[in-house]
């Protein structure tokens, strides 16, 4: 039975993404610790170039403020807006909206990553000539950005699998990447139906490409500390790194806020991992108590826009 708020994964991603923005792509965990001590916390920080100076990392947000979304969060939000307008997933409509949003002069202002740049390069010329399967050979976390919105609208597993396949093919064409998107969608769908967290995570591991399953299982064994996770499994943008680490972060957490703060403190591609950690944690813990702190929702600069959007996303039974 569909007995949970279907928008929880999307909301969890948007909150986690904004919370992580201030330290995104900072790989120096010693520097992160210094910043946290100075600021009194790690969530919803305004990106500061000085925090990245002489440290391992990349400063990509000179024009962003606390409460803004990264490109990952913007993509997740854009997918939801297109689905609300179209009454469901429409690859051609999403492509047109993506070009308007991320091209020069569009609403998005910020760093353009490799898969976004590749998609914009493919989607040139008349829109009617664009291939619906326009993805590139990339293995980074933006491949998962449309999954939370799809989970909000397609409660039936068979429908969800078809739409995830279509959406993933727009931006990514590697079979293992598309399989990873299906694995996340399956896990989130189970959580929204009330499945235990351990069951949902195990199903996701089993659904992953064979070459990634061993890494994911090993990373989830026990309750590894953040140092161990970073050193052994990595904190980069590739899915074969981010998926095992994200699952381990969820397993060791006892609340949404713990999962998100641990994700930020781990360093590296924290906004990328937020697509996994934020979605899974919110689907499991919900809002309030152990779920998304209500105060965090209000720290989103677009919280009113997001609230209106969530009210327009309706599960589709077709």
Summary, kept brief:
Helices cover 58% and strands 0% of the residues.
Secondary-structure topology with pairs:
Elements: H1 8-20, H2 29-39, H3 71-86, H4 91-102, H5 114-122, H6 147-153, H7 157-171, H8 175-192, H9 197-207, H10 210-219, H11 226-233, H12 239-252, H13 256-266, H14 270-285, H15 294-297, H16 303-312
Helix pairs in contact: 1-3, 1-6, 1-14, 3-4, 3-6, 3-16, 6-7, 6-8, 7-8, 8-9, 8-14, 10-12, 12-14, 13-14
Care to describe what's here?
With 318 residues, the chain is mainly α. 58% of the residues lie in helices and 0% in strands. It contains 16 helices and no strands.
The CATH homologous superfamily: ADP-ribosylation/Crystallin J1
Helical percent range? 55-70%
H/E topology pattern: HHHHHHHHHHHHHHHH
Number of DSSP helical runs: 16
Class by helix and strand content? mainly alpha
Tell me, briefly, the overall form.
globular
């Amino acid at each position: 039975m569909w007995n949970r708020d279907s928008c929880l994964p999307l909301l969890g991603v948007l909150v986690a993404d904004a919370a992580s923005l201030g330290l995104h792509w900072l790989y120096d965990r010693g520097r992160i610790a210094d910043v946290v001590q100075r600021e009194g916390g790690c969530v919803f920080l305004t990106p500061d170039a000085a925090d990245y100076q002489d440290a391992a990392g990349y400063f990509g947000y000179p024009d962003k403020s606390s409460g803004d979304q990264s490109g990952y969060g913007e993509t997740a939000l854009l997918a939801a807006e297109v689905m609300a307008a179209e009454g469901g997933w429409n690859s051609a409509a999403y492509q047109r909206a993506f070009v308007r949003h991320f091209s020069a002069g569009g609403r998005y202002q910020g760093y353009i990553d490799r898969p976004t740049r590749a998609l914009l390069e493919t989607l040139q010329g008349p829109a009617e000539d664009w291939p619906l399967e326009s993805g590139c050979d990339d293995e980074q976390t933006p491949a998962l950005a449309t999954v939370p919105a799809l989970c909000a609208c397609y409660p039936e597993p068979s429908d969800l699998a078809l739409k995830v396949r279509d959406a993933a093919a727009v931006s990514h064409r590697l079979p293992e990447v598309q399989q990873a998107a299906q694995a996340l969608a399956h896990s989130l769908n189970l959580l929204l139906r009330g499945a235990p967290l351990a069951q949902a995570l195990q199903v996701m591991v089993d659904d992953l490409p064979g070459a990634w399953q061993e890494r994911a299982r090993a990373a989830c064994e026990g309750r590894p500390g953040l140092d161990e996770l970073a050193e052994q499994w990595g904190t980069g943008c590739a899915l074969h790194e981010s998926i095992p680490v994200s699952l381990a972060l969820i397993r060791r957490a006892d609340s949404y806020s713990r999962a998100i703060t641990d994700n930020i403190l781990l360093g590296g591609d924290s906004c990328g991992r937020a697509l996994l950690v934020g979605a899974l944690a919110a689907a499991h813990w919900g809002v309030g108590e152990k779920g998304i702190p209500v105060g965090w929702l209000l720290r989103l600069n677009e919280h009113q826009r997001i609230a209106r959007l969530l009210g327009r996303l309706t599960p589709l039974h077709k």
